[in-house]
Amino acid sequence: MKQFLVVFLIGFLAVEAFAQQSVDVGLFGGAGAYFGDMTKIDFQKSVNPAYGGFVRYNFNPRYALRFNVINGTIGAKDGEFQSVPWSFNKNVLDISLQFEFNYLKYIVGEKESPFSSYLFAGIGMQTYNYELKTSDLAAIVHPTIPFGIGFKVNLSKRLGIGIEGGLRKSFSDKLDNLDDPLSYTNSDGVLIKYTDQMHNNDWTAYMGVHLVYKLIYGNKEWELSTPRNHILDWGIWNKTRKQ
């Protein structure tokens, strides 16, 4: 919990410091799940609560940059690997910087742009404990690629709500404590590996609802109805650019 609050505060201050247009803050609540080397997982028992928050800097009604933090338990119950029973359960802190694209023009609180679906993708990192041995834990930090889709709608002049689902491609095979489980040493003493940072099976998925608050109104000069001669601007037209 302390890690989550510190990271979120740092991201919030960084985005607000450079904010000159429009800034939103949001809270996320939902669930996280695992996909990887294990099979026959009891999926109902393996979905765990997740919570988080984000700060979003809106360049215009279509494009935004979001600093996102999610914390929660990721695990798998009653599964197996190569017919051997296997389970794991650990806290995962997920941090990412995401580019957000609105299919329709969207601004929190604006009647002319009340809702939109959206896509997001970016770069990120995850940190968690990796069980080297039964009584030996090591802290792991590795990069991820987050991406997903969502839908958001206005509730009031400063509030919005949305639903979102996304995946994280991991660049580590240690999430399930099965680090390259099929590797072996051949008769010549050479280690034969099947996975590495670029090629492994560990993924995480998050789905939930977010509540958004419009912190800074910096979109006063934006034109929601793009002039015909600037129809390809995709939302970056504003009143101050008029000739």
Largest sheet: 8 strands, antiparallel, barrel
This entry's quaternary arrangement is single chain
Task: Describe the global form.
Answer: elongated
CATH architecture label name: Beta Barrel
The run of helices and strands is HEHEEEEEEEEE
Count the DSSP helices.
2
Low-confidence stretches: none
List the helices and strands and how they pair.
Layout: H1 2-17, E1 22-35, H2 43-46, E2 48-58, E3 63-81, E4 84-102, E5 115-133, E6 136-154, E7 159-170, E8 184-185, E9 191-192, E10 203-216
Antiparallel strand pairs: 1-2, 1-10, 2-3, 3-4, 4-5, 5-6, 6-7, 7-10, 8-9
Brief write-up:
The chain has a single domain, classed as Porin.
Description:
This protein has helices spanning about 1-15, 45, and strands spanning about 20-35, 50-60, 65-80, 85-100, 115-135, 135-155, 160-170, 185, 190, 205-215. The radius of gyration is 21 Å and the shape is elongated. It is mainly beta. The protein has one domain (about 1-240): Porin (Beta Barrel). Strand 3 (about 65-80) and strand 4 form a beta hairpin.
